[in-house]
Design brief:
mainly alpha; flat; single chain
């Protein structure tokens, strides 16, 4: 049973998991990128194209795993544009 707050993984743990994550993304990407009529085909090609960028939050401190900050930042401009 985990006790909160859980400590974030140390650098060595993050560095060890990074290649595994990239490899899993590549395996999935290669599988579905070759199935042209599959709905995941486009996503799979994007995984392969951006494989080095997908998991930067694992190996770099301060990088968020999502883009919520960016979306919240541009939201007022988008709302104004839609009016």
């Amino acid at each position: 049973m985990a006790v909160w707050p859980i400590q974030p993984p140390v650098w060595a743990e993050r560095a060890a998991i990074y290649p595994l994550l990239v490899n899993q993304a590549v395996v999935l990407g290669k599988h579905y990128a070759q199935v042209y009529d599959h709905p995941c085909n486009v996503l799979a090609k994007r995984l392969l194209r951006h494989q080095d960028e997908l998991f930067q939050f694992v190996v770099r401190d301060g990088v968020s795993a999502d883009n919520n900050l960016a979306e919240r930042t541009i939201r007022p401009l988008v709302v104004i544009r839609k009016d």
